[in-house]
Amino acid sequence: MKKIGFVIIILMLALSSIGIGSVNASARDLEWVVSITYQNVGTAESPVTMSFYQEGSATPVVYDAGTLAAGAAASLYIGRVTDIDAGFRGNAVVSSSQPLVATVVQFHQNAPGETVKMRMLSNGLSSEDGSQQYLIATALGNIFNRTTVFSVQNLETETITATFNFYNVSDGALLSSIDHDIPASSSRFIETDIITDTGLSSDIFNGSVIVSAVKKSDGTTPANIVAAASELYTNKNVGANFEGIPLGKASDIVYVPSALCKKFGLDTYYAVQNASLTSPAEITVTYYNQDGSLKTEDGPYTIGPGQKKSIITCAPSSGVDMTDYTGSAVITTTDPSSQIVALGKAQASMPSSSAYVDVFTIFNAQPEGSSKIALPFVRWANNTHYNSSTNFGSYQRSFIAIQNLENSDAKVNVNYIDKVGNVLATHTLNLPANSKLNSNPSVAGALGLGGMVAGEFGYYTDGSFGGGVIIEAHPDNPTANFIAVNRVQHPGAGEDYNGISIEP
């Protein structure tokens, strides 16, 4: 995977806002706030600067975030930035002299008596992730009680024109192609249920989107963009965030570290998108048990240009009973010249228990792995805090799924790191080929160390927060490649984000 650069692009997703608003039974209508959790994964301390751009504006609000030691992690609640007003919606650029990784935590500020538990998570994107073409593998408008809001950021120093192509899920038809201009460094938000944003004939949509960009000055020179999205329920206060995928990360094979069917109260679903604008792609989904053995194959399925195919882990075409299954998946194209991207979703099995009813996660499948991966936001609350009736999301637990992309067994070290960069505990796993295993701060022995509250990770006795994980290939197999997803959960709700490659 690409090495993280020294600029991290953050898109403030959905309806980011400072302040407390009234609660409606819809994530679509909530006012959201954002905290940026970031980690210095370089070898020396570094100053950190954050530049915030209101949607449609090329003029930043600049914030000096101070100096961050090597290995250390910190977070910024954007309500502390005094020059950002209530109602802000836009993006940020985080700059440093050392490589950084960052994860956005998006949440609602509960007023007394309110019970919005959702914490939506997504990663910042490196400047190296800029591409002329971005893929949004799933987009919904007023369907399945959900709507997608996605944002595209201009990485150029001049205005660009972005073209948004909307493809129907059922037949792959191009239903709309609409242009929007985006100022330098700024962003444009597209609300899939607003016709003036999409150019669709209806506010009801189920499909996928491909975004391409050129410089407005000549209308032909390719322009670099990044993209991210929120999928928001319209009938309850639940949603999930995910990053768009640049064309350069489309591949004939993608790996999925989480596959579930009625296990841990959850099922998984995949959205697989054909990256080609002209040719169909045929795919097969192969499921692996945790011991590396084959569970079953699903498919093949044909996907039209730009189209998505929805895959249900509990219902493979083979007819194999997947009940109580936990494992991993590999999605491949029949023709190696075909290119695909994919997203995974995990949500409550039906009928759902109260502990999982609003768990709703979205993560990216990966075309390749890395021997070193960062997870900058990792938490583990003790039983008292986690199970409290007043825990509306402030106290969380991280469950990390790690998949081995090698064709043979490989060991990995999962290092739990405090907010100043000290390794508190290491959990070593031996993963069979293509399989996934799990880690968390409790099984790693990382609780209550380094000034943290007894029985907790990431929560400190002085009231501060911070803690992350660095996943590294074991010295026995130093070049082995892995991918990871971190599900951050609390009773009744949860979301996840992808591990970030920091391979040198």
Explain this structure.
The chain has helices at 195-198, 383-386, and strands at residues 7-11, 33-40, 46-54, 60-68, 73-77, 90-96, 100-107, 119-123, 125-126, 133-141, 146-154, 160-168, 174-182, 187-191, 205-215, 225-233, 239-243, 245-246, 253-261, 266-274, 281-289, 294-303, 308-312, 325-333, 340-348, 358-364, 372-375, 397-404, 410-418, 423-431, 436-439, 467-473, 482-490, 493-498, 500-501. The strands form 7 sheets. An 8-stranded mixed sheet has the order 23-20-25-26-34-33-28-31, with no helix packed on it. A 5-stranded antiparallel sheet has the order 4-3-6-1-9, with no helix packed on it. Strands 13-12-15-10-18 form a 5-stranded antiparallel sheet, with no helix packed on it. The termini are close together. The chain contains 2 helices and 35 strands.
Helix fraction bin: under 10%
Instruction: Output the number of helix runs.
Output: 2
The total beta strand count reads 35
Strand residue percentage = over 45%
What does the overall shape look like?
globular
By oligomeric state, this entry counts as: single chain
Structural class designation = mainly beta
Chain-averaged pLDDT: 91
Please state the CA-atom Rg, rounded to the nearest Å: 21 Å
Lateral arrangement of strands in the main beta sheet:
23-20-25-26-34-33-28-31
Instruction: Report the biggest beta sheet as strand number plus sense, adding barrel if it closes.
Output: 8 strands, mixed
Poorly predicted regions: 1-6, 13-24
Distance between the termini: 10 Å
